[in-house]
Amino acid sequence: MTHPQRLLNRMACVLLSGSLLASISLQASAASFDLSTATVADIDAAFASGALNSEQLTKLYLARIAAYDQSGPKLNAVITLNPQALAQARALDIERKAGRVRSPLHGIPIVIKDVFDVAGLPTTGGTAALAQSVPARDAAIIARLTRAGAIVLAKVNLSDWFSDTPPGTTTAIGQTLSPYNLAKYVGGSSGGTGAAVAAWFAALGLGSDTAGSVPHPASHNALVGLTATQGLISRRGQIATSLSQERPGLMTRSVYDAAVMLDAVAGYDGEDLATADSVGHLPDQSYVSMLDAQSLKGARIGVLRELFSSGPEHQETLAGVEIALRKLAASGATVVDPARTQLADLRREVDAAKLSDFERGIAHDVYFAALPPSAPVHSLNDLIRLVGGQLKPETLAAAKAPSLDHNPAYVAALAQREKVREAILELLDREQLDALVFPFKTFAIPSLGADWSKAHSNNPLHAYTGFPALIVPAGFTRSDGMPYGLMFFGRPWSEPRLLSLGYSYEQATHARRAPPLTPALPGERFKY
Fold it and tell me: Which terminus has fewer CB within 10 Å in the chain: N or C?
């Protein structure tokens, strides 16, 4: 309560009766809750006050799924609802009443892309043939989230991992639609997570990224998307396409919530040895504690114009990005524009560093081999025998790919990756930059049925280097009201700095707007 308000209350003591004074005091101290904008901190505050519990919150989200996923606009984001979600919420409420609160995620529902294993629920990868593929245990990241008290509410749609379908479409349930415009692509491959989190079917979402599958739907759905440094988060129990590029990705409606999730999931896992690289790089404090709304002041931000596109199809979004860059400067950042690498053609050099085409078959087999005997598929060849020609060409080709041992093309791609990584680090050091910024994509979002090749990412720098990237909502186009985002890109293990810079930008701009097609339902807004 501010000093002027305290003074007014003292004056009121003289003028008002005790009962009226009590009424005014209650009104002055009342908090507002709005499910559409609530962060984890807002939910936790409502929990602590007793105005809300996990069971009630879970029911609110289930009501939204009932109203907007298979009814109303029929977003078609949910593949599988967790039938135990309400029971888990009740159990977590009992824990809270007994004085045990596991973490800020205690009792918080999440949605996850259907490439992550949850014991007892199918992991389909969006492929109908895997509808009965039920893992025996949780993926490592799911185990960490549930230990922290999160509730897996639903497994959601994606771009079919194995079959030949457009972005955001699976042979399991079909096309996910955008809550901003039902005629537009929702973004791939984590499109179900993007739509579900944007329409607030849950507080938080989990996607995965091989070549832009987190920032792409985050950009299309006005979300925050974090792909952390390769090795910071375990991939065990996750259907993957590349052992070098694949990463889980955090998708939220605020930077704060992304930091809360990262606190829960970052760290070493002996079953994914890539995480050994994280040892010694985790901060001593929580990621949340390092968020600073003033962190742009004095920061040096480089504009990586080598990854800006040109042409009429980019003009509207590029104009919006220029406004976003001016807001960085207005928030106190020193904007180095342009910040250039010493490579002749950065985009071409990045494209030549792609590793997933070489590693796809091995990555698939690593996942399938770990499934229990009851699963219908235990290798990529099993899947090919089961599904056949419905699979996409890349999946079929992966089964015939040459060994990585003594593979000159693969060795060259690895060397190219290192070349690009060194060029980015040299630029960051030379210009003494805290981060680079660029638009992840600037194409106008294609309409369903149009040429969807343009619906894919066009700036996969983060994916091909393994460096961390944070995308934050930057605005909406005037022509069709669709969102676009700004990417903050940094050195390995620089998540504390990236999150803080993104948080500062978010607090200065408040660029996100809720989608128009999934409005609030009764009970989602209240005072307490």
Answer: N
